[in-house]
Design a protein that fits this description.
By secondary structure, this protein is an alpha/beta fold. The chain has twelve helices and eight strands. The chain has a three-stranded parallel sheet with strand order 3-4-5. The chain has a three-stranded mixed sheet with strand order 6-7-8.
């Protein structure tokens, strides 16, 4: 997802500084398109007005934010840090306090949809945190998202993303069981889909999975 977002921003003329996470391929591609690579999170923060994180867990985010080589140590005055992954709301609120104390702003902005949507600027972005900072980076978020929301104070975006994931997982499990029952009883899957999609059960989530 992060590499797709980087590609989108570069295609729209934004200058990027990047740091490797787990693999070289996507970083090398971003550098080939003109991005500058640095070796530490602190160096990235020193070079950036807007810092974007797209990792896997709160622990990974915290490791990049804190410490002598972390982003908080190199943060520019009034810089905005945007946490795009699905993080723990409590961790998000604590980091927001630490970033504010360093003179910046920390936004949670978890994502909906897929890397293919990211490349076309069609993500759903569930933003939260300082509204002034959110408005300041609004033009950048609009490059990435078709539906960009500001939901409230710090942590609200990550709360809503967890609620969204809960509903999505329940629906995915329900549809999986429905088609398993169809297989067991000899009803063609396409027939099941045709009937269900014509009624109120039909949904974008049903089509997606």
């Amino acid at each position: 997802m992060g590499s797709a977002m980087a590609e989108r921003l570069q295609s729209r003329g934004h200058s990027l500084t990047v740091i490797a996470n787990r693999s070289r391929e996507n970083v090398d591609a971003a550098v080939a398109r003109g991005a500058t690579e640095v070796g530490t999170a602190r160096e990235l923060a020193v070079a950036s007005d807007v810092v974007m994180l797209c990792l896997a867990t709160s622990a990974q985010v915290e490791s990049r934010m804190r410490g002598p080589e972390g982003e908080i140590a190199g943060l520019r005055e009034r810089a905005v840090v945007i946490d795009f992954e699905t993080s723990l709301p409590g961790s998000t609120r604590k980091l927001a306090e630490e970033v504010a104390a360093a003179g910046g702003a920390y936004l949670d902005a978890p994502l909906g949809r897929t890397p293919l949507h990211a490349r076309d600027g069609l993500l759903n972005i569930m933003g939260a945190g300082d509204k002034t900072a959110f408005d300041r980076v609004g033009p950048v978020l609009d490059e990435l998202g078709e539906n960009v929301f500001h939901l409230g104070p710090s942590g609200t975006g990550h709360v809503l993303k967890l609620i969204n994931n809960f509903c999505a997982q329940c629906m995915a499990n329900a549809f999986a069981e429905a088609f398993a029952m169809a297989d067991r009883t000899g009803v063609d899957r396409q027939v099941v889909y045709g009937v269900m999609s014509a009624g109120p059960v039909g949904s974008g989530m049903m089509d997606f999975i």
